[in-house]
Amino acid sequence: xxxxxxxxxxxxxxxxxxxxxxxxxxxxxxxxxxxxxxxxxxxxxxxxxxxxxxxxxxxxxxxxxxxxxxxxxxxxxxxxxxxxxxxxxxxxxxxxxxxxxxxxxxxxxxxxxxxxxxxxxxxxxxxxxxxxxxxxxxxxxxxxxxxxxxxxxxxxxxxxxxxxxxxxxxxxxxxxxxxxxxxxxxxxxxxxxxxxxxxxxxxxxxxxxxxxxxxxxxxxxxxxxxxxxx
Length: 230
Fold this sequence. Notes:
37% helix; alpha+beta; eight-stranded mixed sheet
């Protein structure tokens, strides 16, 4: 993601020399005519690959779920004239979604599940893997199915490995701790700890952070998403 492969081995050697003149820290200060000079010096294809490389280095150095990062991301993408792939577009869209969840009005989603009066659903995913942490801190598969997060409850409705129906729900106020680990979102409710695994872990984390606050939810604004491939 945010890099372009080339069979030209010399390019990988040369870019270590080129980065002293043009890199992730100074490219934003270079006018377009200077960038054009670098293009003539490096060659069109090499310069194209080099631009993606320094842009990726800039992302790794400055990443945050903030409006400032999103604004500069698009600004520098235009400056370097980069065309994003579908996965790269999905990456920045997810960053925007997490950022919006942290401060904008929460989305209200229609669901078939019976909700309580004045209860609104803010998150829904139909393909979430739910695991349990055992007393020995091992991970045990619980079920796969629908996850709903409302303004009042956390609802799991799925099937286990034997296709037996599993339904678990608890009030958000019963959650004592939420944190992101490398394999998903870890949620502790009383003596039971759940592991939630889905495509956008940080969106769940941001929503729970918004609902429960920093005392219960550990949220790192600068945590690189799992789908960012190095």
